[in-house]
Request: fold
Amino acid sequence: MAEKKKVKASKPVKKASPAKKRPAPVVDAPHAPSPPPPAPDVARPAREHAFVGIKGHPLKPATEVPALGKDERLRLDEILDRYGRSDANLLGILQDIQDRENWLPRNALENVATRLDVPITRIYRLATFFRSLSLEPRGKHVCVVCIGTTCHVRGAPKLVDRIELEMGIKAGETTKDMLFTLETVGCVGACAMGPLVVIDKKYHGNMTMDGLTRLVKGIKGTPVTAEEEE
Amino acid sequence: MEAMKKKPVLITVDGRQIEAPEETNLLSHLLDAGLDIPNLCYHEAVRPYGACRLCLVEVNQKGWKPEWRKISTSCNFPVLEGLTVYTDSDKVLRHRRLVAELLLARCPRSAEVREMAERLGVERTRLREQDEDCILCGLCARVCAEIVGAHAITFNARGGRKGLSTPFAEPSRECIACGACVFVCPVSCIKLVQDESTRTIDRWGVSLEMAVSKRTGLPFAPRKQLDGFALRAGLPPDFYDVAPGEIERR
Amino acid sequence: MQLPIRTRDRLLAAVEEARKRKAPPEHVIYLCAGTGCRASGAMDLAGAMKAEIEGKGLGKRVLVKLTGCHGFCEKGPLVVHHPSGVFYQTLKPGDVKDILETTIDRGDVVERLLYRRPGTGEIVRLEKDIPFYANQKRIVFDLNGRIDPFDIDDYLAHGGYVALAKALATEPGKLLEEVKKANLRGRGGGGFPAGRKWEECRSAPAPEGIRYVICNADEGDPGAFMDRSVIEGNPHRVIEGMVIGAWTIGATDGYVYIRHEYPLAVETLAKAIEEARRYGLLGSDILGSSLSFDIKINRGGGAFVCGESTALMASIEGEVGEPRAKHIHTAVQGLYNRPTNLNNVETWANVPLIVERGAGWFTSIGTKGSSGTKIFSLVGKVANTGLVEVPMGISLRSLIYDVGGGILGGKEFKAVQTGGPSGGALPSSLLDLPVDFDSLTRAGSMMGSGGAIVMDEATCMVDVARYFTKFLEDESCGKCVTCREGLRQMGWILDDVCAGKGTRGQLELLGDLGEVVKEASLCALGGTAANPLLSTIKYFGEEYEEHIGEKVCRALVCKELIRYEILEDRCTACGICRKDCPTQAIAGAKKTVHVLDQAKCIKCGVCYDSCKYGSVSVASGSYRRVSEQIKFKLRPVKASA
Reply:
């Protein structure tokens, strides 16, 4: 089974200042905080960026952002030329970059920030707010499971559980070999055909557990057994 | 100033009449009038945001039936001619208390949140507690963008997962350690530490070397900040050899 | 036809010309190519059909026309034959030969491909006689199954843009009166009178002379896909509505905000806009009038909150979709702080109809307070799922049983959830409620964008409330404390209830939280977020009681409250459950009754789904369900010899 994609362990930021002691909390807590809540039943994307900057979640070490390669630059130029240089078009620009590159590479974003004269914070905020955008590289096959209401009552959570087990990743993650990304979405608008799974932009309606097993094994290249074939 | 251009109108607050410029935000006048309206995400230096939901009041606009009331935050509600405001009705107090419970559940160890809750009569929360220190009021990010113009920090994600951080959650490259965010944070969760040579804001991962006055030998601002100003304003290279306005030590 | 079309008279001539040119050949096969049918293989079917027709040399006599969504997604891929009107359903490429030989060559029908009434099995040959269609009143959807959405001439041939020509010859003030008289109310969820909004926008000061009209195609409600089908099936009608609106209001620029998850709709509309420009129906001096107006498409980014008008406008401006307080209406200060009129797709699609046939015609349909029709997405556990357009005022019962064909599999109706995450669930006691804006709101739900999700006894209402609360928490922009923290806390309490750890005190707390989220949140997402919870507590309180008091889930959904078991007197030892079990919790061998180890069971339900011999049960308290037996090859191990 493919292993979970590991996030780099964060090392503490090296500081020049001798001040190492964190200031003590201002008052004592009246009673110990409760344990974290249990994971919700509905599968949710796991985005690492969200909680950082808040107490208890350390910053990541600074990344060396590679310069844009020549081809990458040309592809980006084409997108920016198409939209013109207005910052109102940022969302469209980011979506086109993602359509082209399958994710939002950091160096492309820094480049857009410079050329459109917008702060990188703005782009980062957009990229983390809108669920369709991904700041992590995505796998060769992107599988989206619809978890809209109709699909939910028709058993979508079970499908998600099944793929998570088969692929060894949670929704929002990518397999270590970069073959497969699993995402969930609120509704794809084909509610009469629920539950729906969209793999590589192809819609598969009325998905059954058997059908799903066959699809997923097809991607993994695992042969389907005779019984499952029935 | 914008406020001076607006026409002064009369509004009624808890039965008494107050004069205030039309279309300015209500909360500032309620506070000026001496009313104790709780608020955490409001600051006169930046545009109102309406995030903390503590400054709730009930309003009745001119032309409405007398018994119609709408609940609204006062920080972004415009002063309108003939407006009637109720700042301490049962409903308003009940809602403010539940908001306090929600905040207390999020940041149980924050002294400021606890103090604000106690002033509203809320001693403890019935809700599940977490252990955050930030209330996501956004004042730090708003000040950094709207006033300082450094754009070093921002909200990220949304919903229950929303956070406030540096881009890509890495040590900030834009932060000039001016300390505005530290100053404006209502729950003191951004810490600034300074010694003779360095100023550190842990939360944004910055540790900047201080510029030292050639005259007094005292550190007065991070070198990076001064270099930035000099570049933007086209200042001569020796402009910040001494701190502006510095009194010579004898 | 000389392009661009520069006068109204030339347009009417172009319509006539198109009508002649598009006169159908001897046979037309209308093949549904909407997203739903594509998901069941419509494009493969189309390919096979075209190839077969070419092969048989029928190209001149038979036209295969790929249309937008017909609405009957359950039965896709489907075709309708002209001139007979015969309807064929659930087709595979292998059926093509039969259809061509039987229907085209011999003029007969292929019985096995016809619709059958649920229950009686009686066949219905013609599309118009199928109850699903017969009980609808399709005025917005009238052309959906008949025109090629990628061909503007097809729209013209069916009278397209005639309403626009008429509108541009009418004084905007008069048009506004007509729209107001028609009582067209917003079809996106708010139900606000469109005429009043248009009027406010029209009279708002616009010092730069710029006003905007926006079409909200964000359609984030899970379970709703009407707007997608309108755009995919007849994009020009929406464009026409917007141009008429722009003329009436005095707008200069238009935007259509389509959610990211609708790529086919984006493609279809983009092509339609390009064609409209080419024909001179968008751009400067449209049809010789003083109107200069163009439309741009903005894609959403996967955020439900961007369906809220101020969040949508923020997104168009290149910011995150965070709503702002609406003390000043967006009709006065909206996009870029200029007067902006935002309406839903379906609302815009009704405009050309009203202009062409008059307000009197429109008000003759529906009820006094809600005129016209409404497109519903009738989905869930109903026999005929799909999109239906019905006059306002039809009862829920009629919608579900006459149009929808009743509950799937003959089960019991439990609830119908309308209005998406902003609405509520209504029980069987309210089935005779008329479907219109005000009745549904009074009952504690709302019409919303038109989603109607039917639920049966296998749906747990507490789980539904939890689902919606978690959905909204995830989609909330996170700005205000009440919505963000309140929904999170509500979600946690519901988790406890579904896990059998809930207490009555928590139920009370839910009520308090619901109230503050509803009244003190900044925007309508928060303001309506408590509806699913409050309506299920009101109408399905016994289920909450059972979850809390008895730790029982009668619908057999909540994992911690159910128990799977292999029935030892029915197990055939086929071994499939043992192989499929993801935690290897089932022990057994050939000819040995299989046993499920409860300690390892994660309640995934795979054994229940994969057992074909009816030997797995799921139970909670005194409620129990057994898997369906669909195979009979093997006999139970413990069967007496």
